[in-house]
Amino acid sequence: MNIHEYQAKALLRDYGAPVSDGRVVTRAEEAKSAAGELDGPLWVVKAQIHAGGRGKGSFKEADSGEKGGVRLAKSVEEAAAEAKKMLGRTLVTHQTGPAGKQVNRIYIEDGSGIERELYLALLVDRQTSRISFVCSTEGGMDIEEVASSTPERILSFSVDPATGYQPYHGRRVAFALGLKGGQVKQCVGLMATLYRLFVDKDMEMLEINPLIVTDGGDLKVLDAKFGFDGNALYRHNDIAQLRDETEEDSKELQASKYDLNYIALDGEIGCMVNGAGLAMATMDIIKLKGAEPANFLDVGGGATKEKVTEAFKIITSDENVKGILVNIFGGIMRCDVIAEGVIAAVKEVGLKVPLVVRLEGTNVEKGKEIIESSGLDVIAADDLSDAAEKIVKAVKG
Ligand code: GDP
Ligand code: MN
């Protein structure tokens, strides 16, 4: 689960990390008084969406001003005016995709004078199963770009969980970032704080880009992107409450309520599959046959008819879906349950696109019988390759 920058900064503030004072607003009328509570003489007005690259992003609407989603203002009035231009508009960045994201919140912050922009992240390294620090002198930039063009400018190392964070970890970061004098001590303290926050809250990712050296020579967190382990949220009520469902894909949100493993993609073939491995293989073979999957969907082993119905409804609600492939290898999951779920869903929402069904395994005959006797216009398939070929042909002609 991800949270907004202003929420991440509130957590950082609680833990004693250096962040600027700021106020969040959801209505343009609030912006002036919010900005007035800050000291100035510089204000930063920041669109709050769950995506990075806001500064270099652009708005879809003509009346939203020409600058991106991070704007500097020299007066309270100017800050309020910039907030007004962004609220309710759609910000497109390289992370939002072409559809962009609607800006429903604005964070107005005390502006900082910047001497250097640095990059810092903590994440769970799957290779070592440890928490890793990643840092670079190339802050404020796209880190993927730095990683591919100048990988030598990124330092990464993991922390042994038996010792936990030690001051030498912080000094390693400080020297890699070229920090001097009192900054080294600040860095050692800040890294300890970030590590503690990361572990306390079961985080998956903590990215600060940029971490800055201010014109006064101090370290400060200027941007913060936090991701939390969804499986651990049950023990962090405070974090769970920060969830902003308006930032999430509505179909993925609906799927999570039914405990379905669903990820929206941007192809044209909707897939309903059981088992993550088979789901991946199905996506691969759709691509191999010349089309693109519209989603990843694993209905799981013990899916009920209701769950299958819901899954089918989620797939058909996607307007990009031009055809559906149901690919089930019944083991624990029974083919007749799948068949019943599909029929129930079609009765409820109708079927406007071609549907290919491939059933194999437990109760396959019963499943096929249910579909045949339903009078549904289903294209039957015998194996995975045949099924993929048929749905691609039905969609692409
Ligand atoms: P992002 O574009 O979504 O990553 O948003 P950031 O919060 O990282 O802001 C983008 C850029 O705006 C930063 O890299 C800075 O160069 C600039 N910026 C953000 N806050 C301030 C500030 O307080 N003062 C100044 N001078 N620049 C800022
Ligand atoms: Mn940033």
Automatic annotation (TrEMBL):
<dbReference type="InterPro" id="IPR016102">
    <property type="entry name" value="Succinyl-CoA_synth-like"/>
</dbReference>
<dbReference type="GO" id="GO:0005524">
    <property type="term" value="F:ATP binding"/>
</dbReference>
<dbReference type="GO" id="GO:0006104">
    <property type="term" value="P:succinyl-CoA metabolic process"/>
</dbReference>
<dbReference type="GO" id="GO:0042709">
    <property type="term" value="C:succinate-CoA ligase complex"/>
</dbReference>
<dbReference type="Pfam" id="PF08442">
    <property type="entry name" value="ATP-grasp_2"/>
</dbReference>
<comment type="pathway">
    <text>One-carbon metabolism; formaldehyde assimilation via serine pathway.</text>
</comment>
<comment type="similarity">
    <text>Belongs to the succinate/malate CoA ligase beta subunit family.</text>
</comment>
<keyword id="KW-0067">ATP-binding</keyword>
<dbReference type="Pfam" id="PF00549">
    <property type="entry name" value="Ligase_CoA"/>
</dbReference>
<feature type="binding site">
    <location>
        <position position="274"/>
    </location>
    <ligand>
        <name>substrate</name>
    </ligand>
</feature>
<dbReference type="GO" id="GO:0004775">
    <property type="term" value="F:succinate-CoA ligase (ADP-forming) activity"/>
</dbReference>
<keyword id="KW-0460">Magnesium</keyword>
<dbReference type="GO" id="GO:0000287">
    <property type="term" value="F:magnesium ion binding"/>
</dbReference>
<dbReference type="InterPro" id="IPR013650">
    <property type="entry name" value="ATP-grasp_succ-CoA_synth-type"/>
</dbReference>
<feature type="binding site">
    <location>
        <position position="112"/>
    </location>
    <ligand>
        <name>ATP</name>
    </ligand>
</feature>
<comment type="subunit">
    <text>Heterotetramer of two alpha and two beta subunits.</text>
</comment>
<keyword id="KW-0479">Metal-binding</keyword>
<dbReference type="GO" id="GO:0004776">
    <property type="term" value="F:succinate-CoA ligase (GDP-forming) activity"/>
</dbReference>
<protein>
    <recommendedName>
        <fullName>Succinate--CoA ligase [ADP-forming] subunit beta</fullName>
        <ecNumber>6.2.1.5</ecNumber>
    </recommendedName>
</protein>
<feature type="binding site">
    <location>
        <position position="223"/>
    </location>
    <ligand>
        <name>Mg(2+)</name>
    </ligand>
</feature>
<feature type="binding site">
    <location>
        <begin position="53"/>
        <end position="55"/>
    </location>
    <ligand>
        <name>ATP</name>
    </ligand>
</feature>
<dbReference type="InterPro" id="IPR013815">
    <property type="entry name" value="ATP_grasp_subdomain_1"/>
</dbReference>
<feature type="binding site">
    <location>
        <begin position="331"/>
        <end position="333"/>
    </location>
    <ligand>
        <name>substrate</name>
    </ligand>
</feature>
<feature type="binding site">
    <location>
        <position position="46"/>
    </location>
    <ligand>
        <name>ATP</name>
    </ligand>
</feature>
<comment type="pathway">
    <text>Carbohydrate metabolism; tricarboxylic acid cycle; succinate from succinyl-CoA (ligase route): step 1/1.</text>
</comment>
<dbReference type="GO" id="GO:0050074">
    <property type="term" value="F:malate-CoA ligase activity"/>
</dbReference>
<feature type="binding site">
    <location>
        <position position="117"/>
    </location>
    <ligand>
        <name>ATP</name>
    </ligand>
</feature>
<feature type="binding site">
    <location>
        <position position="109"/>
    </location>
    <ligand>
        <name>ATP</name>
    </ligand>
</feature>
<keyword id="KW-0547">Nucleotide-binding</keyword>
<keyword id="KW-0436">Ligase</keyword>
<feature type="binding site">
    <location>
        <position position="209"/>
    </location>
    <ligand>
        <name>Mg(2+)</name>
    </ligand>
</feature>
<keyword id="KW-0816">Tricarboxylic acid cycle</keyword>
<dbReference type="GO" id="GO:0006099">
    <property type="term" value="P:tricarboxylic acid cycle"/>
</dbReference>
<dbReference type="GO" id="GO:0005829">
    <property type="term" value="C:cytosol"/>
</dbReference>
<dbReference type="InterPro" id="IPR011761">
    <property type="entry name" value="ATP-grasp"/>
</dbReference>
<dbReference type="InterPro" id="IPR005811">
    <property type="entry name" value="SUCC_ACL_C"/>
</dbReference>
<comment type="function">
    <text>Succinyl-CoA synthetase functions in the citric acid cycle (TCA), coupling the hydrolysis of succinyl-CoA to the synthesis of either ATP or GTP and thus represents the only step of substrate-level phosphorylation in the TCA. The beta subunit provides nucleotide specificity of the enzyme and binds the substrate succinate, while the binding sites for coenzyme A and phosphate are found in the alpha subunit.</text>
</comment>
<dbReference type="InterPro" id="IPR005809">
    <property type="entry name" value="Succ_CoA_ligase-like_bsu"/>
</dbReference>
<dbReference type="InterPro" id="IPR017866">
    <property type="entry name" value="Succ-CoA_synthase_bsu_CS"/>
</dbReference>
<feature type="domain" description="ATP-grasp">
    <location>
        <begin position="9"/>
        <end position="55"/>
    </location>
</feature>
